[in-house]
Each structure stands twice: as C-alpha cells, then as structure tokens.
Write a structure and sequence with these properties.
The chain is an alpha+beta fold. The protein has a two-stranded antiparallel sheet with strand order 1-2. The protein has helices spanning about 25-35, 40-50; strands at about 10-15, 20-25. InterPro entries: DUF6757. This is DUF6757 family protein.
Amino acid sequence: MQCHYCDRDAAFAAESGGVNVGLCETHFRERLQELADDEGLEALKERVDVDRAE
C-alpha cells in the first residue's frame, strides 16, 4: 500500500467504513502532530481507550 500523500510505501494503515488509507512514517508523524495541536489526539485517545490496561 502507498501513502495517501506521496509515493512512498505506507508504514501505517487505517480502515474506516471499508476504506483503507496508508501513511508513510513522515506523513503519519505530521498528521499525529496536527491532531495533537488541535486537541484531536485527546479525543482519539478517549475513543480508542488508549489508557486502558489489559
């Protein structure tokens, strides 16, 4: 799978509603930083329950 933003191989992939999107490491980090900057990361952590210990 290729990165959604460039021609590099995707290092990470996400699926939602049957749609798969790949991101290279660089673009993954950029998107993660954008989420952190607009408090979206906190909402994402709550949605996936990151702090839960199993």
